Sequence to fold (412 residues):
Amino acid sequence: MSEQKYGFTTTILHNDRRKAIEQGSLHKPVHTSVAFGYQDARQLASVFQGKEPGFRYGRQGNPTVSALEDKISKMEDGVGTICFATGMGAIGALFQGLLRAGDHIVSSSFLFGNTNSLWQTVSSQGVAVDFVDATDVANVAAALRPDTRMVFVETIANPRTQVADLARIGQLCRERGILYVVDNTMTTPYLFRPKAVGAGLVVNSLTKSIAGHGIALGGALTDTGLFDWSAYPHIAANFRKQPPAAQGLAQLRAKALRDFGAALGPEAAHHIAVGAETLALRMERTSANALALARMLEADERVAAVHYPGLASHPQNGIVTSLFRTGGSLMSFELVDSIDPFDYLNRLKLGIPASNLGDTRTLVIPVAHTIFFEMGAERRASMGIAESLIRVSVGIEDTEDLLADFRQALDA
Ligand SMILES: *Cc1c(COP(=O)(O)O)cnc(C)c1O
Fold:
């Protein structure tokens, strides 16, 4: 196929065919081999020395995974992508590959629970972390120090749906030459490309909406090409030999993926690639369902609060309408005190109590008692998480069925 510019879905569907695939296979085959043999031992040596492309050992690269990395790069309009076994593997790689004791990072305080926990670990290992309310760039600016290496935010925070001041933080990082890392999991590259606001690295948990089916774990780091790695102090001499644009991912692939070993398996990569073909279709449907459900709940006096970025009442709805294609598929809400949230969840017939999101099925979870239980009430309160908060990852069910289910559980 030529390098013609196609739309989002066409690009994903046909990307594998840009390179020859065995027997005209329409899907990149699942290559399970861990080792890759060469006819000429000199060629093996030159692959190891990075003088020619090729695969060495399954932990550092695999043809099936590489085809997925190519697709994610296309989705994010990036220059390169590294896949990991999980989204947390990708976020952990930032620490392992790029940070040193004595560094400082600024992170949004509205975070996925395990990322919050990871930053606690990082703080105990010599990297200082400042948590700020990233819905206002002024808080990020006030936290910056001369040794700040990275600003980390999520697009739409899980579960309270705060939206970071994405464009202004990007501008600030550009002015200060600081690496801007955006976790795009909740928006996906279909709703929003963090490159548009100056992100240098983009995180995606592939487990969630990109795969969409909930049958495989995976994560990715994409380099958008915007960050100047020649100015980053911790690139080892070995990786300085690469062109500046390639230095960040070269070091991440060796120091984080290879040395820590959170490699994505080829079977999971295959499942994720198949799921990703319908990302745009699913996001349109789940977003429409989420907006309809959010509007219904907001209008009901038995519901005390609804947090959905696509609602006009959401504090950052202006950013959502200017930067994102839709408000996404994640919402959370609080019932009035007289309704027990557990009883409510037990009355749902379609919403399934489960801890995942971005699935084709609607999943519900009582946040404070499960995914955000470990961090304690004080930290939850600082994240705006009420003890009765219910998170909903809206699926692709028929809209009327979904609304009827959430309504009957209120009526009962
Ligand atoms: C789920 C999630 C992650 C972690 O991804 P896993 O694939 O579960 O490791 C990171 N960030 C956000 C915003 C998430 O929702």
